[in-house]
Amino acid sequence: MPRLTVNDRAIEIDLDPVTPLLWGLRDAANLTGTKYGCGVGDCGACMVLIDGEARRSCLVSLAECEGRAVTTIEGLSRDRSHPVQQAMVAEQAIQCGFCTPGIVIAAAGLLARNANPSDAQIKAAIPNLCRCGVYPRLLRVVQQASRAMRGNAAAGATPVTTIPSEGTPR
């Protein structure tokens, strides 16, 4: 029976050790924020942090996680106050929401190891597929979260769009 720490809690998962971590989290630990998307590591919907590194949980067995620390979207922030979660909302980068947990985890993993990533580093670190197409907003999300994590007071500032009233020439 694999033993691991999930969201700062030591647990034993009573499943075959070759079972993917994804199913241990969803079926045995009832942590359903980690999504099943493709099962082959292409989509990133199942992303979790394993010892601080963003990994696709469909490709990692429970045996490989023995004695390791796993953080799911539920454990990233109990009250949704993580800077990446806040930036996702502020930048309106959540559409249907299915891919959101994986994207948030990938971005949080990046920012934990690189407080000020370049655009290229952000694009490389967030390989997640999003059918709704939030990609243009993801750079702003990670940049905003990065500023917030570095303590920049302007992190919460969002651009103001002025909409002309009727009769005003555009």
UniProtKB/TrEMBL annotation:
Gene3D superfamilies from the UniProt entry: 3.10.20.30, [2Fe-2S]-binding domain
Top class in the EC scheme: oxidoreductase
One Gene Ontology term of the molecular function aspect: isoquinoline 1-oxidoreductase activity
PANTHER family: BLR6218 PROTEIN, OXIDOREDUCTASE WITH IRON-SULFUR SUBUNIT
Keywords: 2Fe-2S, Iron, Iron-sulfur, Metal-binding, Oxidoreductase
UniProt keyword Iron-sulfur present: yes
PROSITE patterns in the record: 2FE2S_FER_1, 2FE2S_FER_2
Annotated EC: 1.3.99.16
InterPro entries in the record: 2Fe-2S-bd, 2Fe-2S-bd_dom_sf, 2Fe-2S_ferredoxin-like_sf, 2Fe-2S_ferredoxin-type, 2Fe2S_fd_BS, Beta-grasp_dom_sf, Diverse_Oxidoreductases
SUPFAM superfamilies registered for this protein in UniProt: 2Fe-2S ferredoxin-like, CO dehydrogenase ISP C-domain like
Domain 2Fe-2S ferredoxin-type span(s) in chain numbering: 1-76
Protein name: Isoquinoline 1-oxidoreductase alpha subunit
Presence of keyword Signal: no
Source superkingdom: Bacteria
